[in-house]
Every structure is written in structure tokens, then in C-alpha cells.
Amino acid sequence: MKKTELRLKYKELRKSFSENQNEEMSLAIANNLISLPIWDKTYFHIFLPITEHNEVDTEFVLHLLSGKDKEIVISRSDFETRNMQHFLLTDNTKIEKNEYNIPEPVDGIEVPSAKIDVVFVPLLAFDKKGHRAGYGKGFYDKFLSECKPETIKIGLSFFEAEELIEDVFEGDIQLNYCVTPEEVYEF
Among 17, 21, 60, 106, which is most buried by a count of CB atoms within 10 Å? Predict the structure, then answer.
């Protein structure tokens, strides 16, 4: 399937989830993350979910990271340049929703992309080769290309892998893992 078809399909499927289903599946994803060989790393980048789009609720992952004393990094997006600016999440971080309902830090201690060890990547769909379909704006592909080559990229998905995303581009950055409520995929 092509990315545009996948986006439509998975946006519709996510709409059908109740708040309770979203919470249960998000917790299962966080529990499955525990088995990954990533816990010796320090800087973890995580997305804050757009609740209106029924995205994976990363609150459970945040608790996991806090409990393991990790440095947590969140981003603010610039829709004109398609750049993301990364900030350390602290007790003093003020978070506000932008015009697209994305929760973002207002300011804080900036963290360069090259310092980030692990990135939890939002997505709508992914395939068995580790390619993903996001919302199509290219923010994460640009961000991931700025990270060091050994940065571990982990997709979080409510759904299992598609066989193949047909229209993968040269600039698309492949995932190392994708974690669903049922399974951990390694690429």
C-alpha cells in the first residue's frame, strides 16, 4: 500500500478506539519496551501525543523513563522550516499545545540532536522492513537524519506491520524497532 492510503486507513482505525482501549494498548506498548536492549542509554527523545488524533499515550513510557532516571527530551516544531528544537524535560518545563494541538515545551534547556541516544517515533503505519508512514510533513525524517548514526529509532504503534510500504523515499529513515501491544519488531 502507498503512504497516502495507509494514512487514511490508520487514522480511521485509531478514531474507533475508546479512551479505555487507547490506555490499555499504550500500557501494553510501554510494558513491551522493557525487553529492548536500550536501558544503558542516557538521552531518550519522546513525543507527547496529540490526544485528538488518538495517538499512543506516551505517559506510561515517561513513567518508565523517569523510574530509570533517564534524561528525557521533548521537541517543539517549526512548521515553516520543518525543524524541531529539542529540550530537556524537567519539573520546570512549561508545556502548551500549538495550533495543531501538539503539546510542546515553551522553552528550556536545549539538547542537540547529536546527543540523543534513543528516539521514540510516532507513526501511523509501518512495514516489515522498518519503514514508516507518519503524517507526511517530514519532521521526523529530518530530525532523525541529524541524529548520530547509532541513535536507536523505535516506532510506537497500536497496529501490527504492513507487508510493504510501496512508496518509500530515499530520505526516509528506517526504524530499528517497532513496538506494538502484541509484539516487538526488530529490523
Answer: 60
Backbone angles phi, psi at 24, to 5 degrees: -60, -45
pTM of the full predicted structure?
Answer: 0.95
Write down the architecture of domain 3-186 according to CATH.
Answer: 3-Layer(aba) Sandwich (3.40)
- Binding site residue list: 3-7, 50, 55, 132-140
Local confidence pLDDT in tens for the 187 residues of the chain: 999 999 999 999 999 999 999 999 999 999 999 999 999 999 999 999 999 999 999 999 999 999 999 999 999 999 999 899 999 999 999 999 999 899 999 999 999 999 999 999 999 999 999 999 998 888 999 999 999 999 999 999 999 999 999 999 887 899 999 999 999 999 9
At 3, which helix (H) or strand (E)? helix 3-15
Instruction: Take residue 119 and report the three cell numbers written for it.
Output: 528516539
Tell the burial category of 45 from Cβ atoms under 10 Å away from its Cβ (0-12, 13-18, 19+): buried
For the annotated binding site for ATP, the residues are: 3-7, 132-140
